[in-house]
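Fig. S4 source data, part A: sequence.
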Amino acid sequence: MCPGLHEPGAHLSVGGTIGRRCITRHSPELRLLAYAVAARLAKVGNHRGVHAGADIDRLGVPRSRSRGLNVSAHIIDGRAVAAKLLHNIGRKTAQFTEVHGRRPCLAAVLVGDDPASQTYVRMKRNRCAEVGMESRYIELPSETTTAELVAEINALSADPTVDGILLQHPVPGHIDERAAFEAIAPWKDVDGVTMHSFAAMAFGENGFHSCTPGGILRLLDAYNVPLAGKNVVVVGRSPILGKPVGMLLLARDATVTYCHSRSRNLAGHVRNADIVVAAVGRPALIRGEWIKQGAVVMDAGYNPGNVGDVDYSGAAERARLITPVPGGVGPMTIAVLLEQTLSAAEATVSR
């Protein structure tokens, strides 16, 4: 398995055939292969190298590219970090299955026939298969009532063969989504959407993280971004993204400012931010010239046309690190979901 960008002991030789130009020219998959081979050579030959997270320029982590622009930001490669996490999940899932005679099980509930939601559920089921987990799929018609959905989720909460429950968001407008979320047993809330999970994040207690916020924190850690004392602006206040990511950052001693549709002088807030988390669901709302020189930009937005909430080209001219859309935050959401499903299964058998 390829070493993580922050993993102790992962050393690289930056010369020869596995050098900066070789790594930056190719896809994330080939860059991972390059990292793995270089790390192996360093280990076998006892070479003196550089720490894999210590010097981004020397390691050849790719800079963001935009034709005709003076672009300075380095890309935060969510696919690479997620691949490492999924590899570890697959290994631990195999061990769990061997010891306990069953696979961890994630039940996904989809209400209606929204194409985007169907795609997301299919991606999650495919990742389950890749890591060796069982995936149970419950598809309900669009006319399902709140009471019927709550009954279905209650049944899954009571089913001892189900470790985690995912209710695909959003549900049809006539359904009380919050009531449906709250029907998920806290110990099976692997998507981190219940009030119980939010309280655990806010108070620093044991519990599951909302998956996208949890993925954002893991990316920041993978790229050795310090959080203590940093000014973080979270643009967006949804109960499963904006609010919980702020709580997780606050727990790491960041100074967190929430901005939203009623905030005055959004540009001014963003300009003062060391780290910007965009989670508002409006394409290119955050303009590139608002980004402070050397800031870190985490774009959790995904809008039609593969567009995030940040003006990517403009922001990449000023940021030090930036997540692309797609390929940044998104892959980590599913990886954290499966990591927490495995944790739920392990907690079940230990009770």
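Fig. S4 source data, part B ends here. The two ends are 32 Å apart (CA to CA).
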